[in-house]
């Protein structure tokens, strides 16, 4: 299995603290040694770092940990391979351009015998995850010729996710830079930080940060993870079948299958 | 204007030496301060590093200079902006998935009033370069439903490039990981290194490398650049209208408009 990391914020915020915690689970405090990746939206651009190496040993991961990239939407992932070899092409998150936007996707779980229909988007690697991402985007394209309203988009997205979960475990994060969609079938959790900010301590590394010193009173920052990354905060668990669409750090829409 | 860097090799080879020379031209020995990027194919995957900052000052560029990523096909670029603001979305190279492959493109030059027809691929940023890339891929998709033979592909590619150059300057590099296509309208040069290998000295930094110590007798490595990167080797100039498709370090096909 794998672990996911997401962030949605109302001001460009760096995710160094949470990323540092997650990276330890890629070979040090956790078994997810088979690659890692993280995508940061910067305006309409997407900055993607990936490595098929274990994150705990990755020089690129070390760079990202000391390089505070500010973003309002982030998707990260550490991999413990089940379907598909350990390779760059099988490393999450996956990215495609749709309607002139960068769409970014990461998946935790496994889909049995997932076969995507033929369509415009085709997987580059061998994972069930990338096949599911392509299928999602192909469906969106078949329903809409341009970016629809969020509510219309959500109807198609949620219906597809509800179908995919019949084939196995499908916890996922998806973003187009404007919003962050999260879907849980087994395990997902989030925390929303806002004023008054306090200190937080990582579970996986001896690191404490005082968010009060790094934020302004209007900041709202939500972090989503497979398992809580800190041990002194009250993370909120998703229920199986629950989905939430985050925008500017807060829930825009949510529901449950 | 901008500068291009390409590599085609018959064995996975690192491009640290050439990249180090090019990066100096992004703010130190050259005026190309408006961002840089480089894509390395690793198997079917593509590892992309980009930064809208000047390469001479970029921490990510420093990482790439000390991190020998081995690849058989590489496309790099440093930018001096003309069309489009300085931003990540306008930073080359651009990437799209086509037929389950990562296609990567960088452009040096400027196309006047370039308007791409509506199509499947749409630019994310504002550059003429990305619009031309999308138009290229849209044409390929309209001609072929799957990857055709290289000769058929080349016919469409060269015809499109010949048309684009009517609108301005169109030096470009394009790759799908298997081959590297290069097209010159004003300025492009290459060097092919093979046994017996000797020393090479960068023009833009006080760096000499002895390729004899870093290669085997069967290695063939071609580097393509806008301007020669070394001052003790005989770089070969492209003629205006000349194109070459490189594969495994050697020319697979070439021609001239």
Automatic annotation (TrEMBL), chains A, B:
Recorded GO MF terms: glycosyltransferase activity
Keywords: Glutamine amidotransferase, Glycosyltransferase, Transferase
Domain Glutamine amidotransferase type-2: 2-257
Main enzyme class: transferase
Documented EC number(s): 2.4.2.-
Keyword Transferase: yes
Organism superkingdom: Bacteria
CDD domains in UniProt: YafJ
InterPro entries per the UniProt record, alphabetical: EgtC-like, GATase_2_dom, Ntn_hydrolases_N
Protein name: Class II glutamine amidotransferase
UniProt lineage: Bacteria, Pseudomonadati, Pseudomonadota, Gammaproteobacteria, Pseudomonadales
């Amino acid at each position: 299995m794998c672990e996911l990391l997401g962030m949605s914020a109302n001001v460009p915020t760096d995710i160094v603290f949470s990323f540092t915690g997650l990276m330890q689970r890629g070979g040090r405090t956790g078994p997810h040694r088979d690659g890692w990746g993280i995508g940061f939206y910067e305006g309409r651009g997407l900055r993607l770092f990936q490595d098929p190496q274990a994150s705990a040993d990755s020089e690129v991961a070390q760079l990202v940990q000391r390089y505070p990239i500010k973003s309002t939407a982030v998707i990260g992932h550490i991999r413990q391979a089940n379907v598909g070899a350990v390779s760059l092409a099988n490393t999450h998150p996956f990215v495609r351009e749709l309607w002139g936007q960068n769409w970014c996707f990461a998946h935790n779980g496994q889909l049995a015998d997932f076969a995507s229909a033929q369509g415009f988007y085709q997987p580059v690697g061998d994972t069930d995850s990338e096949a599911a991402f392509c299928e999602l985007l192909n469906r969106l394209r078949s329903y809409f010729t341009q970016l629809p309203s969020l509510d219309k988009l959500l109807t198609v997205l949620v219906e597809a996710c509800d179908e995919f979960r019949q084939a196995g475990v499908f916890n996922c994060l998806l973003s187009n830079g404007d919003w962050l969609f999260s879907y849980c079938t087994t395990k997902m959790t989030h925390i929303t930080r806002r004023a008054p900010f306090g200190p937080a301590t990582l579970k996986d590394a001896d690191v404490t940060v005082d968010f009060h010193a790094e934020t302004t009173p209007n900041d709202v920052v939500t972090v989503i993870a497979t398992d809580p990354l800190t041990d002194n905060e009250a993370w909120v668990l998703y229920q199986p079948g629950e989905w939430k669409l985050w925008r500017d750090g807060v829930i825009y829409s949510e529901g449950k299958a």
